[in-house]
Amino acid sequence: MSTPSTAAPAPSTALPVPVGTLADVLPAVAGALGAPVAGAADRADALGALALTPARRVLVVLVDGLGEQVLRARSGHAPTLRTMLAGGVVAGLRATSSVVDVSYPSTTATSLASLGTGLLPGAHGMNGYQVRVPGSSVLLNELSWEGGPDPRTWQPHPPVFTQVAAAGVDVTRVGPAHFDGSGLTEAALRGGRYRAARSLGDRVEASLAALAASDRSLVYLYWGDVDKAGHTSGVASSAWGAALEEVDEAVATLASRLPADALMVVTADHGMVDVPPGARTDLARDPELAAGVELTGGEPRAPMLYCRPGAAQDVAATWRGRFGDDLDVLLRDEARQAGWFGPVAEHVLPRIGDVVVAARAPVAVHDSRVQSAALADLVGMHGALTDAEVRVPLLSLPGRAL
Description:
Number of helices: 17
Strand order of the largest sheet: 1-5-20-11-2-10-8-9
Radius of gyration: 20 Å
Oligomer: single chain
Distance between the termini: 39 Å
Helix content: 25-40%
Strand content: 15-25%
Structural class: alpha/beta
């Protein structure tokens, strides 16, 4: 189902087999804190496979865009993370390394919703970068949420942070100021208090202070500059290597100052591949591909096509004929049956495109009629189902007392 990008080649040895999904991470953290979330007993085997050490305090570091494959390929820039990947010793502490998969589409809004709710996209309903609001011609950007519906109605399940806070754990979320109260945050990541901090160094200090402020705590630190460097310069670039070095230094600092009874978990929301300029198609300039497509959602490596009534079969056939093995092109029910979104709730189904696409090769398809021109100019992209995009690291480091 996947073809690694030439910009981020697979290492010579086989990648680890994923032990779960990103949706399992925070429920497993909650279990480690002794504050299991709703439904945890029904998925005890899945959560137990992540093998997180029980702890009084847990710090979760989410590095946007830090895929397992590209991290291994560029690990020369990350001595601390490289050691953790190998299950080695960092700051006198023994790391544990595993891999989890994110779901389709492998994009920030969907993945952070999976992380935050502990649910797969078919349940939480945040199914892409841009999705059609059912019964309308409106595309909701689930990352920016501009003009979007009430986020707690759009995603009604209680996030893990809310559930853990209700169990008496002190919850602190650390990130950029504009995330506080945003639609995405309110939909999937609300709970506890929010601490705004701009630089990575400031976020490290805020996270350590929050860990120290309570004897039973969960702290979440988000950092997005690795993803930004990948989008603007590509994962093979010196800019991406520099962004990785900055994260590696921050993780080293956190490890050296981790409280003795704390557990640090490092993971990501997706990986990334570089797409050459000549491998990009614009529906606005391609009448054959655009025929029958009423609205284009998703993003360039994972378009979701909302078709005119009765046109979905023809649209899918046209796209399959044009792209062959470069794209997986499925009708909505086919994608549902294939498990791309996990079990899909009935109210979520109309949010998904009539035709759902995932790139295998380093190619991309966008629609400049309704999508930002900036999407077409990105170097690094994600959203599809290649290993480079869906496999992310799950690295844990227990404090000395653990």
